[in-house]
Specification:
The chain is 37% helix and 19% strand. By secondary structure, it is α/β, with parallel strands linked by helices.
Amino acid sequence: MRTIVSRLIRYKSSLPQARIVSASGGGRYLTTDSNKIDEPFNVEEAETVHVPPPPTEKLLVLGGNGFVGSHVCKEALDRGLSVSSLSRSGRSSVQESWATRVTWHQGNLLSSDLLKDALDGVTSVISCVGGFGSNSYMYKINGTANINAIRAASEKGVKRFVYISAADFGLANYLLGGYYEGKRAAETELLTRFAYGGIILRPGFIYGTRSVGSMKIPLGVFGSPMEMILQQAKPLNQLPLVGPLFTPPVNVDSVAKVAVRAATDPVFPPGIVDVHGIQRYSQQKSR
């Protein structure tokens, strides 16, 4: 708060001081002491100050029992948010303490009635919903389900909506037509319905430790070194056709951190955040 106040003081001091001057004929008009008419104001860029969210902040995570969704739930709880989740299977099977602090809803995003109940009192939403299969199935899960959620959240007056989408992979997009067509349709709906509070994250391959039953798969063994290598090869992204294949992987903790910040920080800019933006925002320390 001290940082914000000091910036406001500097901004105020840069403004010319107004005074009222008498004019001929008995009239009065407002003037300033400055003769610099067209000089722009010295406005500094806003920055995020990390403060505990108010108790009324409630986050709904769609797909909160999945790989990315579970990390989003944990990150939000660590930030002091009230967290609920809606997914087809309901409560997470993870036997960890954080799971007991989440309100779990079971439902299908293709059913708008169940979704509206889960949105009661919610101030922000993060959707981690997506999947693979046939083209029609992928469009339905990645597109229609998320579009339903975006529309329902807008009608409920939700302030901010964050959508975990996917980076373009050039030629690979044609092999997963329904997947990417669904993702882009949901993105268009989000930017239309939430022009000032809609954020789209486009990570590439997301790595971390995945739990499959009782087995844990440490994807970071491969993902972390690849991220470091491809970060240094950023110019390769600009190559025609094959450039997107050099998109670096990103840690699931980074995605979760940026998603929660985007959902709760009113100065986080709306729009699309690519993998390099995700990496950059995740490395910024809260003040």
